């Protein structure tokens, strides 16, 4: 398992968290809702929320890995800082701008920390082992490869009027507009239909 591989559950929403980005480096920024409206709702409000996100993301099986302690307040603050650095960098990439310096330096510093180790368990499944910080470092390292690699050209921001979710456009034509067809895409279709009915 790597941070870029999807968890076994394909649902877009798991344990209250949105996973529409196609990469965990784009899903972590989605834990802060209300970016467009300015009425922020932080899904990472407490250390236990970070543990839950790590499980929902498929990085941890029970919020704890091989006896490692759960997330601390310091881990939570680090996760929020990483989240904001990832959002700033991915948004810049989506808009064709150079990476902003402070978020770039923050990401590089995070990615330089010790990361979670891959582990083959007794059932033959691959997973990551480490504490919350090490698991987040694995996400940061994958983010460096995403943002600095060719796939970075396919980072998009959802065109939903109230949505700020960033996603990796894996469509053949590279013209995906919505973070999710069942959410923002459907709302746009309904709005367009109603607009045609009125006219």
From TrEMBL:
Pfam families: ABATE, zf-CGNR. Transmembrane segments: none annotated. Residues 154-196 form the Zinc finger CGNR domain. The lineage of its organism: Bacteria, Pseudomonadati, Pseudomonadota, Alphaproteobacteria, Caulobacterales. Gene3D superfamilies: Jann2411-like domain (1.10.3300.10). It comes from Caulobacter segnis. This is CGNR zinc finger domain-containing protein. It comes from the Bacteria.
